[in-house]
Structure prediction request, 417 residues.
Amino acid sequence: MNDLLPGEIERWQLLEATIRRVVALHGYREIRTPIVEPTPLFVRSVGEGTDIVDKEMYSFVFHDEPLTLRPEGTAGVVRAYVEHGLHTKEPVSRLFYTGAMFRGERPARGRYRQFYQAGCEVFGDAGPVVDAEMIDMLVGLLREVGVEKVTVLLNSLGSGDVKLRYAVALQNHMSGFGDALSDDSKRRCWTNPLRILDSKSPKDAEAIATAPSILEFLSDEDKDHFEHVQALLVALGTPYVVEPRLVRGLDYYTRTLFELRGEGGELGAQNALGGGGRYDKLVSELGGPATPGIGFGLGLERILLAMPQNKIETTPSVFLAPMGERATRQSLTIARSLREAGVVTHLEGRGSKLGSMLKRASGLGARLAIIIGDTELEKREAVVRDLAQSLQVEVPFAELVSVVTAKLGRPAVQGAP
Ligand code: HAM
Prediction:
């Protein structure tokens, strides 16, 4: 779990602001659900026999109720969708969320126990237009934050009994490898064979490479849906690679499944920047009406690792350097007026010497210093010094706000915290 400190948080804010803007342009509206949910919600949706449910959940019992820190966002959003009867309010809901998720995984670069996701879920639209639109939005979004090298992996898990029939075929195939498989996969052969395809163990590599393809099990309608998604992506000019072994570590998926892999930057082996897919049965499985769904989750830490290390432009600021108690009192009023005009203002209230105040102003990256001493107080004016150019002018108090905003070039704080 990480602390995110000033200095690095600016890149986070840029990423989050871009995501918010892009999803809003696509008609998504924000939903906030609790970080804690009843444990059975995740067991029923993410699925028994998945790594998340079997090994990674932060679960505890509070007053006899089993609870879990959310390991992902979809289950809580579906619960809220059902609980508040959102289907009765609109035929299609497009929801966006962002926040911390918790998985007790082995920590590595790009893999943390508390990590941040931004995700979207669409309810009530069986696609395939929404599938293609969502994938295209993600590629565009990543490009906008400078992550250009992205591969879209695409698969279909079909509907109806496709996963079940494929699981039987996979079980037959895998049991042929007997003891050569990893211990986890031997167990999963009987509990959840599809999860073997997620295995990174070298012992399972050959069995996975020679496994049958799920695409051969799709119904005609599933195939039609999958081909339609692909045709739309081609029409959009969004490249993708069909990967029949892509199953992803969650049980709720049906039909379209996708993952965005990055490369470069600081990104290491954990290169899945995000992923998602359809879950046309999940809403009804969690007690709601039969409603198709599709969504994705983006891993913000990983996107930040892949993002170029551009210097983030900070909002220009002003440093008020009063000398003496009377000047400090006057500066408090001036600071308030500047802030009301949208100027980021630092006020030195510790009564320092001018030299050390100007040093502090440079340390904070301030563009201007406003110096007020006894002489200035008498004349009701301040010295405004441009710290980069070491030029200074005297400005009457009454004109300070307009002179400062003009010098800074843009008056208002733009998306600053
Ligand atoms: P997921 O693939 O489990 O899907 O997670 C989505 C993304 O979260 C991953 O691609 C990765 O970038 C990031 N992520 C996952 N685990 C970690 C970790 N331990 N540390 C850092 N980043 C991590 C879901 O969670 C689904 N809810 C996505 C979805 C929404 N499907 C349909 N709707």
Summary: The first strand starts at residue 29 and ends at 30.
